[in-house]
Amino acid sequence: MQARGPVHEAYAEPTGAAPAPGTVAPQAPPADINEVPPDQRPEGDNVQWIPGYWAWDDDSHGYIWVSGFWRIPPPARRWLPGHWQAIDGGWQWVAGFWAPDDLTQVQYLPAPPPLPDQPAPPPAPDPNSVYVPGIWVYQQAQYMWRPGFWVPFRPGWVWSPANYVWTPNGCLFFEGYWDRPLGERGLLFAPVRFGPAWRGGAFVPSFVVNTDFLLGALFVRTAAHHFYFGDYFDKGYANRGFVAWPDYRIGRVGFDPNFSYYRHLYTGHPEWEKNLHELYHARAAGTIARPPRTWNQQVQAVRTLPGNRTAFVHNDIHVTHVENVSVLSPLAQAHNVHVTGLAGLARTPVANVPAHVVKLEPVTRDVHAREVQAAAQLRESAALRRNTEAKVLSSGGPRPLLHTDPPHVAALNLPKPIPHVEVPRPGPVVAPRVAPPIPVMPQHEVRAIPKFEPHPLPRPPIPVKR
């Protein structure tokens, strides 16, 4: 069990960065693990099991399994998993994405121009606003500039802005949508490294990544367009494109929307952001112990903690020694856990931060059967998408590269989602959380497009002569 590694794409993906090719692995991924959902899940009527996938790990020069997890999906969205695509020189990862429920076709676009140097945001209309940076949008057979704009802050909701997904056939563009904060999206399970002793069989994820720990050790790997968590504090990782979550910027004027949410949540407590930065810097400098990298190392670290385990790691950084090394928790210990959003970093009581308690419930036999079937359907959708893109790639079909190239449209006949199984619960009926209205987008502008070299599209693998 790994106490660090990739964050499942369906849990969180960086937004705002220019679309870039996915990771290239020198060898084919193994067959998917026979992964089975655990018998406990967070309470709720729309909690779905999202299956795991293989990710290439540069440190071990091998594949690591990014475990499936329980997720409350964004409203009116469905997950379309990523896949590994064979190309000339290896295998390339093509990222998954939260697609609109009514998606029936995809439009492969030429790569958008690089983000221009954006000026400082205009004054906010009120203190209760969050800034969304500008982005290039393909309209009327050309790229037009959508200026940045302000979105009202909504407690319990994160605005995930418009974003691009790179594929071997071109770039996919999706408009923004509302999502839940990181601490309320579900249960994220630990990645797993399977060694040669693994003999197959069913694998049930059983170690949960602690959400509060995640906020204090989250990184954006810009080249891979992926979140990573855990001990990536060494300078060598910065040289490989790992950026600490609080330091990540979109076009130099915007924050990651998830960080922006927590930053705004602690308005009036600037010491929260200051101390969060200090926690990252102190771990990088070694003045605060770095977190363990595996579950076994975590057990040993907790066992050998010196002195008072309830004392804080630093006078200003209100994280205890136990919290500092507690990356994972067994699933059985994830019930009734209070997610604080690292409120202790604010030093003073924070009254306006809503409390969130993780409550688990048993997974009934009917629900479990439904989730196993739904996971198989997600893998079927991923294979359908992979085959659709592979046909264009291998046939040498239209793949837009220059921003003046016309887009290529392809049908995507996804299977209908499997209906959810209603679970009766005692007590009063809780009304579903309704997403805020979609923000009004600013008018697009025609701007001069600078000269730039887009990433070359990959070539299909060379056939082997027999």
Concise account of the structure shown:
The protein is an alpha+beta fold and 466 residues long.
Topology, please?
Elements: E1 5-6, E2 24-25, E3 34-35, E4 40-42, E5 48-50, E6 53-57, E7 62-66, E8 69-71, E9 77-80, E10 83-87, E11 90-94, E12 97-100, E13 105-108, E14 129-132, E15 135-139, E16 142-146, E17 149-152, E18 158-160, E19 163-167, E20 170-174, E21 177-179, E22 186-187, E23 202-203, E24 207-209, H1 211-215, E25 218-221, E26 226-229, H2 235-239, E27 242-244, E28 249-250, E29 254-255, H3 257-265, H4 270-285, H5 295-303, H6 321-325, E30 328-330, E31 337-339, E32 356-358, E33 360-362, H7 365-395, E34 408-411
Q: Which descriptors apply to this entry?
A:
466 residues; single chain; Lipoprotein; three-stranded antiparallel beta sheet; alpha+beta; 7 helices; four-stranded antiparallel beta sheet
Which structural class do the helices and strands define? alpha+beta
Distance between the termini: 41 Å
Q: Report low-confidence residues grouped into runs of 5 or more.
A: none
Largest sheet, described in full? 4 strands, antiparallel
| Domains (count) | 1
Q: Biggest sheet, strands in spatial order?
A: 1-26-25-27
Which percent range fits the helix content? Answer: 10-25%
Measured on Cα atoms, how large is the radius of gyration?
22 Å
Total of helices: 7
The whole-number mean of residue pLDDT values reads: 91
What percentage of the residues does DSSP assign to strands (E)? Answer: 25-35%
User: What is the count of β-strands?
Assistant: 34
Shape: globular
